[in-house]
Amino acid sequence: MTEKQPKKRCIVYCRKSVEDAEMQEFNSIDAQREAGESYIASQRANGWVCLPTRYDDYGYSGGNTRRPGLQQLMKDCEDGLVDIIVVYKIDRLSRSICDFSELIKKFDEYGVQFVSVTQEINTASSSGRMMLNILMTFAQYEREIISERTKDKLFASKRKGMYTGGCVVLGYKSVNKKLVVIPEEANLVRRIFQRYIEIQSPKVIAAELNAENFKTKTNKPWATAAVYRILNNHTYIGEINYKGSTIYEAEHEAIIDSETWERTREILAANNPIKDPSKRTRRDIPLRGIIRCGHCGCPMMPSYAKKKGVTYYYYLCEKHEKSTGLSDCPIKKVPAGMVESLVQEQLGRVFHSHDILTELAEKTELPQRIISDMFRENFWQEITPAEFTRLSQLILDKVTLHEDHIDLDIKSDGMKSIIEEFTEDEE
């Protein structure tokens, strides 16, 4: 009587990546599975049994082992649920010699046998192991060749100014592998560039966009980093930035003109923090994005100048700054400290105005006396520069600077939130 063969639990591992699209020979996971199951069936006399569990990885490269199907397979091997792993070709498991060697060590540790259907490799024999190592060398060589060809093709396409795929930035859509301008989004991009030239603050720009319920291309709220990415993206000027080192002229239509782009570069360079703290020229700018010239109606931009090692800060009328000749603007440039002191004095009067106190008392349901005590005399002069900047951005909608006076437009909701904040702190 013939001794019955012990059952050997077999599984078929399948993988398909984007690189395999042209390899029609085994570009289908179903085809791989069918070949593996047929091979297992041919070994029925040796006790091989195909388990129903599927271990498939679709769209994953063979260059790494971070694949969900493979990770689950290794866990089941460790738990002793698998005896034999069957693949169509060895590069379905891995194209890296180092990764493959580690996997084979694990298989040996777990007592699992590895078989390749089309290459007649079986790790149960020494000759099978030798052939496995030889074929793995060629598999890695093939992978490196494919990678080099892909990089060469990508470089050649970018050099011709062609769109090579990836995430499409705000302002464009992909049509037949070409970038086409979306007018509504393009207007938003132009607004971001123009506002940055006016106020030089991506943080304020992001807050403005969120206040108006604008979303990013990925339908997320705006953040400072997202604004910076817009301002630094060469796509908007009709160029392609290849690896941050080479710029090529692109096929697609530009959204931003060269003058706006260059002006943005200048401001970004001027506002870039210097690594050496002793050489920094930046300070809190409480009226950034808020202050306007009462004569021209133009935004007033923060500026500074250094004389004998001392830094002097100013608010500069945009019209005067852009003028190539003599400007008739009487405001022109004013010392930042002087303007900010005037704003602090006027805020002190505002928070002790009967009309303002009455309005805030109604909104917060607090007695006028308590609100008045919160903003005692010299409150605005005593707070830190950083706190003055925060509160100014919160409650001031606009500051208009005239030759002989200054006007403040107050956000009543902003004042209410400050009072509520202070009340919570006292509690």
Provide a compact summary of the structure.
This protein is of the alpha/beta class and 427 residues long. The chain is 44% helix and 18% strand.
Describe this structure as you would to a colleague.
The structure is a single chain. The chain is α/β, with parallel strands linked by helices and 427 residues long. It folds into three domains: 8-154, Resolvase, N-terminal catalytic domain (Rossmann fold, 3-Layer(aba) Sandwich); 172-272, Putative Large Serine Recombinase, Chain B, Domain 2 (Hect, E3 ligase catalytic domain fold, Alpha-Beta Complex), CATH 3.90.1750.20; 291-426, no CATH class. Helices cover 44% and strands 18% of the residues. It contains 15 helices and 16 strands. The strands form five sheets. Strands 1, 2, 3, 4, 5 and 6 form a six-stranded mixed sheet that branches. A three-stranded mixed sheet has the order 11-15-16. α3 (97-110) links the parallel β4 (84-87) and β5 (113-116). α5 (183-199) crosses α8. The longest helix is centred in the middle third of the chain and has 34 residues, at 126-159. It is elongated, with a radius of gyration of 34 Å. The N and C termini lie far apart (91 Å). 25% of the residues are buried.
Question: Which consecutive residue ranges, at least 5 long each, have pLDDT under 50?
Answer: 21-26, 273-281
How widely separated are the two ends? 91 Å
Portion of residues within helices: 40-55%
Number of structurally distinct domains: 3
CATH topology of the largest domain: Rossmann fold
Compute the CA-based radius of gyration. 34 Å
CATH top level of the largest domain is Alpha Beta
Strand content: 15-25%
